[in-house]
Request: fold
Amino acid sequence: MHTAVQITLSCEIASMQLTPTFKMGTLQLRPISKVVTMRLASLPQQQQAAMNLQVNFEIAKIQEAASGSLGQIRVNPSQQQKPATLATPSFNVSGLQLVSGFDSAPLQLTPSHQTQASVHLTAAFQITSVEFSPTFEIAGFILNSTSKTVAVQLPGAGASSVENAPMFEITNVQMDENGDIAMLQLNPVAKRG
Reply:
């Protein structure tokens, strides 16, 4: 059984830090919907796109891991569509701030509220269990996060872009009072090679 899956969340950029060489530093992302797509991690994305194997689910429950990663989530099948995300590689800046104590990324940009700067965050999970309805339809999946490393890509960047997308590490997950993800803080992963 293929138990490795990838979950893709639609998020908006709350803030972005830039390094002194104007490279992307820390990102703060806010999920814009509980609707996510899930696909098998073992198949190449081009093959899955041809077979239409991305399925929409809705996050029903999330338990943050102590390490600050996504931890365990429960997803249920959803008829809702993922929200439309802005497929532009730019956004209007409403705030610019010098951040003291962050020599590696001292400049923080905040997008304006008029233009939603959206990205897709893809994270690796393992299927822990499958729940069925009385009519033997899938009622939900329990998934465990398998890595703090995630891919971040602009919407509409192309079918193969998850494999080539910039990689980040989740450093902090903030939950709201309803138990939903309020904010994700990510740091870029240094490229090897």
Summary: The chain is about 5% helix and 55% strand. The radius of gyration is 17 Å. The mean pLDDT is 78.
